[in-house]
Amino acid sequence: MTKGKDTKHMILEAGLDMTSKVGLESVTIGALAKATKMSKSGLFAHFQSKENLQIEILNYAAHLFSESVIVPALMAEAGIPRIKALVENWIRWASELTGGCIFVSASTDFSDRPGKVREVLLQQQNEWIDCLQRIAQSAVRVGDFREDIDYDQFAFELYSLLLGFHLYYTMLNESETRKHQETALDRLMDNYK
Q1: Residue 77 domain boundaries
Q2: pLDDT band for position 175 (50/70/90)?
Q3: Global pTM?
């Protein structure tokens, strides 16, 4: 990497951490400059605006998410083992970030706010839902799920389970969260067999 790319990578790492703690809307050029001990003008030179900074953080997070959650799950055997791997990877992803999954908090912050940040976030969420649908299709192809399932419904239910886990884990701090999540996942998959 060049010095400029190294600096930008360091900024995005700090931006991702800050986003996890305070939310994407709270990440500003000034706040991130202070956190990285850079000048505002130095940081501004990399992004040109708060909106561009937020989009770059989302794109950086999406890249890390793909590398940490999706790609390793695709290495697992198709069907139920792949679904379980995907869920475990997502839980690890959300748990390793200081404040939890940034896509969850950003979705709340930008759900009713038009603009480029929302468009990027919406595209990322649609790609994630498509991934959940494709993973269900692979479970049908290998015979783990019956052929007449509704892929949209499966994606909705699996994502709802993950979001419920996120709330219980980050906000409610329930001691039985993992046990409940595993039971819910088993019941969900039994429903599609």
Answers
A1: 54-192
A2: confident
A3: 0.89
